[in-house]
């Protein structure tokens, strides 16, 4: 059995869903040791399956079938998420009180940004630091002075096969994976 986390696009942003219901969907797919982290579609689970794309397709299909909602499931193993945490792309970034570090997970680790990095668009309220194994690392200005449009830019660049979490959420997910079964 291997432990994964699925980062699901649009849960309690586009599709309102109780985490207990989401866990039941994962159980029906045959996954075990299912745990949700926060209420934004972060689901830790174990599976004996090896094909990541097949696993993601099963999850996406189950949610579409049950709720009529098209989501994107992006999977990471505990080791892969640990590598991202260890890389800490924000370690030398001076964060302002009204800014947040975030990671946008892409379905294709081979995807490319439509611009060079770092890419500072302060007039639009964001700075893209770069990519780590298909994860776009950025800082968003939440002061209200600008309207950051980075998510729309990334949606176009990755054909909406992307989902975003703030760094604190990613750290919490990794801690929850460490507290779970080895995998």
The SSE string, one letter per element, is EHEEHEHEEEEHEH
Q: What's the helix count?
A: 5
The structure class reads alpha+beta
Mean pLDDT, all residues: 90
* Spatial arrangement of strands, main beta sheet: 6-7-8-5-9
Major sheet description: 5 strands, antiparallel
Q: Tell me the span between the first and last alpha carbons.
A: 7 Å
Percent helix: 25-40%
Uncertain residue ranges: none
The dominant shape is globular
Quote the beta fraction.
Answer: 25-35%
What's this, in brief?
With 183 residues, this protein is an alpha+beta fold. The protein has helices at 19-28, 52-67, 78-87, 150-157, 167-179; strands spanning 2-8, 32-36, 42-47, 73-77, 99-106, 119-121, 126-132, 135-141, 162-166. The strands form 2 sheets. It has a 5-stranded antiparallel sheet. The chain has a 4-stranded antiparallel sheet with strand order 2-3-1-4, sandwiched between helices.
Task: Describe the protein in words.
Helix content is 31%, strand content 29%. The chain has helices at 19-28, 52-67, 78-87, 150-157, 167-179; strands at 2-8, 32-36, 42-47, 73-77, 99-106, 119-121, 126-132, 135-141, 162-166. Helix 3 packs across helix 5. The longest helix is centred in the first third of the chain and has 16 residues, at 52-67. The model has no long low-confidence stretch (mean pLDDT 90).
């Amino acid at each position: 059995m291997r432990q994964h986390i699925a980062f699901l696009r649009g849960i309690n942003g586009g599709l309102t869903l109780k985490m207990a219901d989401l866990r039941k969907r994962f159980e029906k797919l045959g996954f075990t040791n299912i745990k949700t982290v926060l209420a934004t579609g972060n689901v830790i689970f174990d599976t004996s399956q090896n094909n990541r794309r097949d696993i993601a397709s099963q999850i996406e299909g189950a949610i579409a079938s049950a709720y009529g909602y098209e989501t994107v499931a992006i999977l990471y193993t505990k080791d892969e998420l640990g590598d991202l945490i260890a890389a800490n792309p924000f370690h030398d970034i001076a964060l302002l009180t009204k800014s947040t570090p975030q990671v946008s997970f892409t379905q294709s680790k081979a995807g490319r940004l439509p611009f060079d990095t770092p890419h500072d668009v302060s007039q639009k309220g964001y700075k893209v630091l770069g990519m780590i194994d298909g994860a776009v690392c950025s800082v968003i200005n939440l002061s209200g002075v600008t309207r950051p449009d980075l998510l729309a830019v990334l949606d176009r660049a990755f054909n909406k096969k992307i989902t975003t979490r703030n760094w604190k959420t990613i750290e919490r997910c990794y801690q929850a994976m460490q507290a779970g079964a080895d995998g």
